[in-house]
Amino acid sequence: MTASAPDFKGRTVLILGGDGFCGWPTALRFSSLGANVAILDNESRRQIDAELKVRSLTMISSLPERILAWAGESGNHMGLFRFDLATDYPALRNLLAELQPDIIVHFAEQRSAPYSMRSSEGARYSIDNNVRVTHNLLAALAETGLDPHLIHLGTIGVYGYANAGLQLPEGYLRVTAHGPDGRDVKKEIVYPGKPDSVYHLTKVLDQQLFAFYNQYYGLRITDLHQGVVWGTQTAETRRNPHLVNRFDHDPIFGTVVNRFIVQAIDGTPLTVYGSGEQARAFIHIRDMLTCITLAAETPPEPGERVRIVNQYSEICTLNALAARVSALTGAKIDYLKNPRREPEDNEFEVSRTILTSLGFEPNTFEDILAAEIADITDILATQSPDKSEFLKPGI
Ligand SMILES: NC(=O)c1ccc[n+]([C@@H]2O[C@H](COP(=O)([O-])OP(=O)(O)OC[C@H]3O[C@@H](n4cnc5c(N)ncnc54)[C@H](O)[C@@H]3O)[C@@H](O)[C@H]2O)c1
């Protein structure tokens, strides 16, 4: 973490997907750090929840209520724009020209691997939505000639989860090829994507779009290859019940940490899929905010290639995570047949030099998991006297 709080006074920050799990606390953080914040979201995620008949464990307010509550708490007014980034290109271009943002943080994508793999409809929607959103944004920046710092939330899953036999680099792989005269030629190339789902594939395609628009239009882009985000509340979302962040625990959008926490609170066994030796990278939502503001404070120089940053706090196996939750709560552990097509175990070593060099000090499960479980238990007790209704994962 930086010694002093970053200051974004006088800067305009546009948060694409600002109603989502990551986008909402990010909008609040930039606003609390003095930025003029605008949120753009088509609320597609709320519609998907309704289609799947699932809901956040925390009772999230409508987007206008959230923004009103923040204005009441902080005195800061955030702009709100509601349209579909994938289909309304003119609205996007006009908004950018009007706002002239200094920083754009791009979260506006369908983000569930299981959703993208559940049907051809889910796969087609994920590609259509995510690739079009990213391309519309890049095309609009090129057309308007604006030069904001674009920060995109990508995923560490672009590297794939099969054993790579090497420490995964930050986006670029050093290779030695042979020149026409047989001499060794050293190059750095974008690490070849190895997505395990259509969702991850969209992030691999995003990478190609970023590389092209960076090369031809000089756009300044940071692509954060992020691990699985866990945790719920941040300093800002705690300030008022209308600001609470979402907590997904259904089988499509709920990630493994949330599932284990809910199972432990419910007194049912933690369900580990497969051998449990699958290693993944994790990051708490508060660490995510630290990393995004660090990235925002240090934009790429004009002419610099796309800056790819691995963003995670800790790597651990599902077995290690389940053991930790079990030790804290006494929950039993059940092993189920793995419904996903993924390697049963993997070595997963991922470089994280950029954020470390910027002073990032990660929080680990050991540091904060107990507090997180207590937090969710409290939220549940206040929000839902009949917790059984809320603990149903839906679908
Ligand atoms: N949550 C994680 O664990 C995690 C991990 C790594 C990367 N990421 C990335 O971070 C980003 C945000 O993830 P999240 O967990 O907050 O997801 P989320 O579903 O909670 O939020 C995404 C938001 O984007 C909006 N959106 C989607 N398509 C849109 C469109 N066409 N036009 C306008 N708005 C649109 C949705 O309505 C939603 O509010 C995603 O790109 C995701 O891939 C998330």
Keywords:
395 residues; alpha/beta; Rossmann fold; three-stranded mixed sheet; 13 helices; 40% helix; binds nicotinamide-adenine-dinucleotide
Our estimate of the beta-strand percent is: 15-25%
Mean pLDDT: 95
Ligand inventory reads: nicotinamide-adenine-dinucleotide
Q: Give the proportion of residues in helices.
A: 25-40%
Supply the helix-strand structural class: alpha/beta
User: Please, how many helices?
Assistant: 13
CATH topology: Rossmann fold
Task: Output the helix-strand order.
Answer: EHEHHEHEHHEEEHEEHEEHEEHEHHH
* Main β-sheet, spatial strand arrangement: 3-2-1-4-5-8-12
The description of the largest β-sheet is: 7 strands, parallel
CATH superfamily (homologous) name = NAD(P)-binding Rossmann-like Domain
CATH class: Alpha Beta
- List segments where confidence is low: pLDDT < 50 over at least 5 consecutive residues: none
> What is the CA-CA span between the terminal residues?
40 Å
C-alpha Rg, in Å? 21 Å
Kindly give the count of domains: 1
* Shape field: globular
Pathway: Bacterial outer membrane biogenesis; LPS O-antigen biosynthesis
Protein name: NAD-dependent epimerase/dehydratase family protein
Family: Belongs to the NAD(P)-dependent epimerase/dehydratase family.
Domain NAD-dependent epimerase/dehydratase: 13-301
